[in-house]
Amino acid sequence: MIPLPSQHDDADEPDAAAAVWVFLLTLFFFKLATVVLIFWHMRTWEAGLFLGSTLWYFFPPLVLLGAGPAIFYYRLRKVRARREALRRSEWMEMELHDAGVPTRRPR
């Protein structure tokens, strides 16, 4: 039996993901540079209105993209704090048990 080559190559996935991120970041920084240049040359209320009207649709995706890492780090800190409290309580109980202090155990 002759093996058929697959159409999906897993080795290209990291390169493709990196290319997408480079493309998106290039678009973002180009838009940011354009906004800075417009505001630098036109420091008026109308320029602010123009920039606000052309930028409003960029904020929801940026909020969604920023919410993922923010929630992740919040949960990470919460889990680490719980783990540290559990570790402290475990060692505190061991110290009390070693000192001869009776500890209550759940039935």
Helix/strand class? mainly alpha
Helix content: over 70%
Mean pLDDT across every amino acid position: 79
Q: Count every helix, treating DSSP H or I runs of 4 or more residues as helices.
A: 3
**Record field, number of beta strands:** 0
Domains, number: 1
What is the ordering of alpha helices and beta strands?
HHH
The value of Rg in angstroms is: 28 Å
Q: What global shape is seen?
A: flat
Strand fraction: under 5%
Oligomer: single chain
Largest sheet: none
Low-confidence stretches: none
Give the termini distance in whole angstroms: 64 Å
Note the topology.
Elements: H1 13-41, H2 45-55, H3 59-98
How would you concisely characterize the structure shown here?
By secondary structure, the protein is mainly α. The chain has three helices and no strands.
Keywords:
single chain, 107 residues, mainly alpha, 75% helix, 0% strand
What can you see in these coordinates?
The chain is mainly alpha-helical and 107 residues long. The chain has one domain (14-98). It contains 3 helices and no strands. It has helices spanning 13-41, 45-55, 59-98. The radius of gyration is 28 Å and the shape is flat. The mean pLDDT is 79.
